[in-house]
Records
---
Amino acid sequence: MTQLQYKGTGSATGRTGSRYWRGKTAYLGVIPFLIVSGLFLLYPTWNVASGAFQDNYGKFSTDKLKEVFNSEIARKAFTNSLEISAKTALAGAILGALFAWALVNGKPGGYFYRVSVALSSVLAQFGGVMLTFAFLATFGFNGLIANIAVKYAPDTFLADASWLYGKFGISVLYTFFQIPLMVLVFLPTLENLKPQWREASDALGGKAYEYWLRIGIPILTPSFAGAALLLFVNSFSAYATAATLINLSDFLTPLQIATALTSETGGANPAEAKALSFYMVVVVVIAMTLYSLLRRRVSKWEQRR
Amino acid sequence: MKQSWKVRLWRWTIISVVGAYLLVPLYAMFDFSTKPFGFADKGRTFRAWQIIPSQPDLMAAISRSLITAGIVMALILFLIVPTAIWVHLKLPALRRPFELLCLLPLAIPAIVIVVGIAPLYRWISIHLTESPISLAGVYSMLILPYTYRSLSAALDAVDIHTLAEAARTLGANTSRVIFGIIMPTIKTGIVNGSFIAIALVLGEYTISNILNYKTFQVVIAQIGRTNGNVAVAVSLASILFVLVLLLAIPTKKRQGKVLDVDLA
């Protein structure tokens, strides 16, 4: 409504000129931003979107998209990516939600709470080179836990660092940054749960598990699912961690894209990189659309306080 | 209400399990970075920490990354925030397209942006500059969704139309309205956005590595190949640095809005 009010008082500056031009010149204000975003955001987006439908010489063709779709290696990488993203999203969402619950049940605004939230914001951004180092220092050759395992439990998988470089290892690493992200995303939701609901349930004789089963979990499910989708996108897009941990160039789709783009043996293949990117974007767009639909459902109760 | 012992038991079980998952690797970093060199396996040494300042590549990369972060923050302050305010105030018709544009990076993983932007940066490095500072352009786009979210929340919370009207009636010009009146009232949103800018620029690896720019993370990865202890020490130091920075920022209203998605 405030916008309507403003329109009526637009001439407060006493600027001259017709009403028509006054309205139009306002558009000039967004030009600098349009130039920067055009160069660094719209151009690359367009480049990938249009490039996916071209061959290496710039002619229109869907050959690359088909070729990638039918390629055994690309499919394997894609399913690996999907599988790892789904698993780490679920694991991160569950552990993160539990941790958020533990925080909400503590002293709000207390020292532990503050440090946990701050640490979560740092660790959620922690993917990449540093995360790889942290896990190599923990489970890698001569790492903290690995050394303990070698001494006391030489038969377990922990004693041999090679597990770190497979699907399971990558998943353990990814979950590390998924948990804090979930804490950050889910904490506001849990804080907005009305205590009255719990009191009403208690007053009517409901047990704790009945409250969670019949009220808590059904209410939280949409926002939990939405957060899990965010986490899915988060690990689906992740490149740095995997790139610094393993050199297997076609293990995950992001790694395969990087190889297609930079291959030093002269095999650089930008068209393939664009086709692969196109499929990635399709997955992300689907996930984000679902996310925004879920958010809309959630915001009905969450935003009213 | 006093908590039952069941709740407390669950609480502490969860905190210790998840806490161990998150903290053991951090402690392992400390342990690894203070291991004695060579084959001795007893004792501790802080040599890896002490020789951090004498790594010329690293120091150059840190200062370059900090300059880049500064430029990204300047772009936020003088380009993105004013444009957001301008759109809110004057161009309600553009609000929806502007929002979509700001949220676009969420749909495009960093690795895909690299694919699209590689030709542009090839041109920049040939014709303009080879310095990694030019990455500020693409970084400022990567953080758009976060900047936009904290900004639009802040802009919705205050009635900027009334503020702008009042300021104009009292004779302020447009830039005074934006920089002198509205921006101070949405300070928290801007501070949040700027913090994310620092975290993003210091942590970015995907784009700079593929485009061959020697940023902070790329150099750490390089050092890690030859001198693990030092690389681990630097990593841990930078995590602690960011943590202290975060704890120093006033916490009111901040939690929950800081980050929604990671960009790694």
Note: Chain B has one domain: 55-248.
---
Amino acid sequence: MEATVTTANSEEKTWGGGNEPMGASYGKLMMWFFIVSDALTFSGFLAAYGFSRFKFIETWPLADEVFTHFPFLHGVSAPMYYVALMTFILIFSSVTMVLAVDAGHQMKKDKVVIYMFLTIIGGMIFVGSQAWEWKNFIKGEYGAVETTGGSLLQFVDKEGHRVALADFAVALPEERTQLTRDKGRWFMSESSIPSYSVAEVQAGFKTHPDILVRIETINKDKQKTILSREDSELRISQASLVIEGANLTHNEYGSKLFADFFFFITGFHGFHVFSGIIINIIIFFNVLIGTYEKRGSYEMVEKVGLYWHFVDLVWVFVFTVFYLV
Amino acid sequence: MSHVYESNIGRIWKVFGILSAVTIVEVILGIVKPHSLHMNSLLGLSFLNWIFYALTIFKAYYIVWAFMHIEGERNTLKTAVVTPVIFLVLYLLFILLTEGNYIFEVFKNSTIKWNF
């Protein structure tokens, strides 16, 4: 019966306007419903990621082999640490946001200013970290070879440790120039040429008998399968492309779809964080010039706070789906 | 709806503590990957992944209830926001994951090799 008896108002005032059926102002209610629709959008993306992963469940990349970097620790494999740090930064900026909302309820302008400022800084650090993560992902680490059939071959030594292309590929006296528009027709161009050609990788593989090929298939121990030397030689003869790093069409870590989804979902989330920062900055200046002090209510801070927490909420799911599972 | 607002600062820091602790547990489990949890599975999902998803929902609950402060809203608003999301997401996941699994079987049992 709560829906019909909305306020303690008299009967005629119920239909007289100015009523709040859910006890929330128009703006706050619409922010909630925007969040519902945006949550469903993100769910759609994450479910699509799950769909593709189930489709290629036996060959999907292992996340803790992909994201292994930490600032200033070059060559040290540190899975999870960096993204855990990013998660903390975002959760903490959520805390400062909710403290700003709390201070707003008590009409403490100075506190709102400080907490909103901290929130904005936290958001900026997060977006910067995201950019650094993307940079490492795009640049790649070891390099790999793609076969004519589209599967990916990575290289390991006898102990199963990854080997970079630079460690064994030989330099052959061959010349390969970048195709640019001025050398061909106006529509002809290509992305940057990898450091080594397929022939150089194959020749290097022949001269290093202790290097084996690792394929995408996940074995019973939930590790990638390493082929014997004979099988490796067979597979490397089918190589057609050298892949360094990841982009939307090729990916040295494994399934191409993994990179596509990573760029799309973390990119879309990063865009939300970015727009959240912009909105926070606008509200921050409004607080500074005393707009809400004059209005007598800091509800606007509460509304952007809802959006900011939502961004944090999405990250919790992205973190689980991309980095943990 | 003018009511006297009481400060929530104590609860905010408590929730921050809970969220941090859960994240730390997740990261430790993700790095250590305990063998018994990692290798055994229930309904096609390893125990480790069940734990990750459960902890994620747990964190999501605290973010929505405490930080977004939906606990202070009316029941109508709470229901209008939370129920559609839960229902639609479960439905979507069911459809897409079932289909993904089906396509995996089709690829696996087909006579044509698609990735070689």
Note: DSSP finds eleven helices and five strands in chain A.
